[in-house]
Design goal:
The complex is a heterodimer of chains A (298) and B (613). By secondary structure, chain A is an alpha/beta fold. Chain A folds into two domains: 3-27 and 86-293, von Willebrand factor, type A domain (Rossmann fold, 3-Layer(aba) Sandwich); 39-85, no CATH class. Chain A is built from ten helices and eleven strands. Chain A has helices at 2-8, 14-20, 67-73, 106-123, 150-159, 168-178, 196-205, 218-221, 246-269, 283-294, and strands spanning 36-55, 77-85, 88-94, 127-134, 137-140, 144-145, 184-189, 209-216, 227-233, 239-244, 273-278. In chain A, the strands form three sheets. In chain A, strands 3, 4, 5, 6, 7, 8 and 11 form a seven-stranded mixed sheet that branches. With 613 residues, chain B is α/β, with parallel strands linked by helices. Chain B has twelve helices and 37 strands. In chain B, the strands form nine sheets. Chain B has an eight-stranded mixed sheet, covered by helices on one side. In chain B, strands 6-5-4-7-8-36-35 form a seven-stranded mixed sheet, with helices on both faces. Classes of the chains: A alpha/beta (298), B alpha/beta (613). The interface between A and B is medium-sized, with 35 and 21 residues. Strand 9 (227-233) of chain A pairs parallel with strand 2 (30-34) of chain B, so a sheet runs across the interface.
Chain lengths: 298, 613
């Protein structure tokens, strides 16, 4: 544990990690896992919890035949039990240039969210895969399982640096194609890309349960700049001459609010969870209180 | 709109370029990298919807600066609006400064209102325009000649003093028309500021002159003394006649107060109907002499016509000498005049040379040597001093003409007069003919310095003249004319504006005239009589010299002036000009307006810059 603590200090506080050890990521859907885990699986397996009966077919294990039923009905039925398997948790971080803003930067805040969630998932023996996407590509980390993978995962997170353009549509589509096992997908991004809907739809259409963390910098939500400025887009270098007045600031805040509402309504209408986070939100408060209240953790 | 200095517009090009460069330098925006400009694009999306306006608004400050600069360049180019007047117009402003213009029915007085309007006209003159101002009182006076100096015009107009005299608009208009005629070819016009209270100008030929009649005044609520006179009746008693008229629309009740030598002697109550008049004869003064002042105690629009002065004269004795060999007609005719103390003789007495006699009649007796100053009637005789030399003799000449204007032949009808024999007279340049025969004058009259002559070229006993009714009339006229100052008075009264003859005795070098307003004028005496014509004020004038003292009074007594009704039209020749109460249009420069607009635009630019509209 000491080893883990040392590795995780830069992202998360060890005390904080202890606090979240008992939390569990909530997935509303039931997914099929690969190894036996602590979650109910869609597969029928060897647990003690009865699930159903089905007709015997050639090649079935005789040991699962319910002989009591055969005695009464003279037909062979197999007794099915609920299989408990692990959950695939895909944690996707937007590492585009636009995430490298704010104090702390949105990217660092996103990494801390992913670190916390992945730690919770690993503690619950879920299979955790972290992917970082930018420039239309998604770099997917090999799925890890168990607390022994924490340090490797945190190392990977720490090595993540900002890229260039986001291209959410391409990146998330790429991620959905690379992840063959369905599971819980958590996307942390500022969604400053017009094609984010295409990317989210590709995940949803492949059966992933989706939770979206919409992360924005406080200065983006409520900017304090004024004057005659030449604004330069950090990703594509677009320029915009503006004379920022109180009137324009009002319109800007309305535009931000419209964007948030748009992302939220898209998510809720497609059964995805939507969580808005500003980078000035106290992190512990976010994980221990806010996400639990929203039902993302329990 | 035209420009007086269009080349100054070229200033806009370099200055505009400088402004644009400064603007571009000024608007170098600070770079600021943001995570995404998407929200800013969204925020400005609705602004972009009005793109044409926004493009304009984007450079609003530049446009405002350029607009202000353009306006200033235009202001420097001196634009002006050409109204009705052509460039370099000539304006002759006639300001009525007569008594009626002192009416207080408008603020301060009508004259002040007229001056104010004239100053307004001067201020609105274009650059090439010139204005001349005539003050029309008793005499027309050019206050300032054609000038474009607005300050000088202002000062000259402000310096016009009110006169109590009648308005001689005929003289002023004649002067104005002649000045206009000198400026033919330019757009010239006459502007008359008056209440219209002057004589008809229909006999003047105005041609096609442009005339603007600026009517001053609102109403006519005035009662004035329009006549005053005094006379001595046959019984020797004095009578004073005063005429009062109400020119207003309201009935008026007032008192007429009459003072003799500053003592109230009579008060008459007058009930004057609207536009009505009253004539009062004041009697019971006896044989008194002195100054009579009539006053009406009423607060009306015009005060100057509420007082009038007359003088009661007393008759002096006339020492007359008749030198004749016998002429009963002549003697009786002279004795008809009660004033005459007649001395008869067949020869010239010694006292003649000493000037004892005011009137001397030489009937067929040659006057001796040089004659002292006085009045002389020469009948059938002549002398070197006489107004005419004796010429060719003639028998039975008929009277073909006579001088109807001379006071000597006034009411004398010589038609059909028979003369047996006579001699034609050859009048000197200073003499005038009284009776003309077929070959020349038969009677002449003339004034040579202080000596007056009436000379007949025939013996009245050789004619039927003494038997005619005209004879005593002629003799009475002769006495009146030859002895002009037979009436002794402490003063006399004239109409305001008329000149007054003063006859100081020899040896008086200067006369000091104390005016009604208290000021004094000094008049140098260059022989007698002295003509004093600074009589623009109504009231009492006191004259003093060395051993000489007299006074005279000037009265308004004019229906034209007392009737302060503002006239609607002015007739000049055959044309009628209606009154205008507004101003006179003129070329107006717009540089002031443009400069003010430029200032306003700059102020808005400043506001826009700081408020970031």
């Amino acid at each position: 544990m000491n080893d883990v603590t040392q590795r995780t200090t830069e992202l998360l506080d060890p005390d904080f990690l202890r606090k979240i050890e008992r939390l569990v990521l909530v997935a509303r859907k039931v997914f099929a896992g690969r190894l036996h885990g602590e979650r109910r699986s869609s597969k029928r397996g060897s647990s003690v919890e009865f699930a159903d009966y089905r007709d015997y077919t050639h090649g079935d294990d005789f040991r699962r035949v319910d002989w009591n039923v055969y005695a009464r009905l003279e037909r062979l039925f197999l007794k099915l039990f609920v299989e408990e398997e692990d959950l695939y948790v895909y944690l996707a971080i937007d590492a585009s240039k636009s995430m490298d803003f704010g104090s702390p930067t949105k990217l660092l805040y996103a990494k801390r969210i992913v670190a916390a969630l992945s730690y919770i998932a690993l503690c619950n023996l879920d299979r955790v895969s972290v992917s970082v996407f930018s420039d239309g590509q998604a770099g997917v980390m090999r799925p890890a399982r168990g607390k022994q993978s924490v340090s490797a995962l945190f190392d990977y997170l720490q090595s993540v640096s900002p890229g260039k353009e986001t291209k959410l549509g391409d990146s998330l589509t790429d991620l959905s194609l690379k992840c063959s096992n369905r599971g819980l997908a958590v996307v942390v991004s500022d969604f400053l890309d017009e094609e984010y809907q295409r990317g989210l739809l590709s995940l949803l259409s492949r059966g992933f349960e989706l939770v979206v963390f919409h992360l924005l910098d406080t200065e983006e939500v409520n900017p304090s700049i004024v004057g005659d400025l030449m604004l330069i887009d950090s990703e594509d270098g677009r320029k915009r001459e503006v004379t920022i007045t109180q009137s324009l600031l009002r319109r800007y805040r309305s535009a931000v609010q419209r964007h948030r509402s748009e992302v939220e309504s898209f998510c809720t209408s497609h059964g995805a969870g939507y969580i808005f986070v500003a980078n000035d939100t106290p992190f512990e408060d976010l994980i221990l209180n806010y996400l639990r209240r929203r039902g993302a953790l329990r | 709109m035209s420009l007086l200095a269009p080349l100054t517009l070229l200033l806009f090009l370099p200055l505009g370029a400088i402004v644009v460069v400064l603007y571009l330098l000024k608007l170098r925006r600070k770079d600021k990298t943001v995570s995404s400009v998407q929200f800013w694009l969204d925020a400005t999306a609705d602004i972009q919807a009005n793109a044409p306006f926004q493009r304009l608004k984007k450079n609003l400050l530049l446009f405002l600066q350029l607009a202000a600069l353009l306006m200033l360049a235009f202001a420097l180019a001196r634009p002006y609006v050409r109204t009705r007047a052509a460039p370099e117009s000539r304006v002759v402003a006639i300001i009525d400064a007569s008594a009626s213009m002192q009416s207080r029915d408008v603020r301060q007085s009508r004259l002040e209102a007229a001056k104010s309007r004239a100053r307004g006209l001067a201020q609105s003159m274009g650059v090439g325009d010139r204005m001349l101002v005539i003050s029309a009182g008793a005499r027309a006076r050019v206050v300032i000649s054609f000038t474009k100096d607005k300050r000088a015009l202002n000062a000259a107009i402000s310096g016009i003093r009110p006169s109590d005299a009648e308005c001689d608009m005929r003289q002023a208009m004649t002067l104005a028309l002649s000045l206009i005629a000198e400026n033919r070819g330019r757009d010239a016009r006459v502007v008359v500021y008056s209440d219209g209270g002057f004589d008809d100008l229909s006999s003047l030929s105005g041609g096609d002159v442009k005339l603007s009649y600026q009517r001053i005044g609102r109403r006519s609520e005035n009662v004035g003394i329009t006549a005053i006179d005094s006379r001595r009746t046959h019984s020797g008693n004095q009578q004073v006649f005063v005429g009062v008229r109400n020119f207003g629309l309201q009935n008026r009740r007032t008192n007429l107060e009459v003072y003799l030598n500053d003592k109230l002697i009579d008060v008459r109550e007058l009930n004057l109907l609207s536009r009505g008049s009253a004539q009062e004869v004041i009697e019971g003064i006896g044989e008194a002499s002195g100054r009579i002042i009539a006053k009406i105690a009423l607060d009306d629009d015009l005060a100057v016509d509420d007082t009038a002065t007359a003088y009661l004269a007393r008759h002096a004795r006339i020492e007359a000498l008749l030198v004749t060999k016998g002429n009963v007609f002549l003697e009786n005719a002279l004795l008809l005049d009660k004033r005459i103390d007649l001395v008869r003789g067949e020869s010239v007495p010694e006292g003649l040379a000493a000037g004892e006699y005011a009137l001397v009649v030489f009937d067929r007796v040659s006057p001796p040597g040089p004659l002292p100053p006085g009045g002389y009637l020469l009948i059938g005789t002549s002398t070197q001093q006489a107004p005419a030399a004796v010429g060719q003799a003639v028998t039975s000449p008929s009277i073909v003409d006579w001088n109807r204007k001379s006071p000597v032949t006034a009411f004398v009808d010589p038609v059909g007069m028979r003369i047996a024999k006579a001699q034609y007279l050859r009048p000197k340049p200073w003499a005038e003919s009284l009776l003309d025969g077929p070959g020349g004058p038969l009677a002449v009259a003339g004034v040579d310095g202080a000596t007056r002559f009436v000379q007949l070229g025939f013996d009245i006993l050789d004619s039927d003249f003494p038997l005619r009714v005209s004879f005593p009339v002629f003799m009475a006229n002769c006495v009146d004319w030859l002895v002009p100052s037979f009436e002794v008075s402490s003063g006399r009264s004239v109409k305001v504006g008329r000149s007054v003859e003063l006859s100081p005795p020899s040896g008086v070098g200067t006369l000091t005239v104390k005016m009604p307003d208290g000021s004094s004028r000094t008049v140098k005496v260059n022989g007698s009589p002295v003509v004093f014509d600074s009589t623009d004020q109504a009231g009492l004038y006191k004259v003093r010299g060395r051993g000489y003292e007299t006074e005279f009074a000037c009265n308004v007594v004019s229906s034209n002036e007392s009737d302060t009704t503002p006239r609607d039209t002015v007739v000049l020749g055959r044309r009628k000009f209606s009154a205008r109460s507004g101003g006179v249009s003129a070329n107006t420069e717009l540089y002031g307006v443009l400069a003010a607009l430029a200032l306003a635009v700059l102020a808005f630019e400043w506001y826009a810059y700081h408020r970031r509209i």
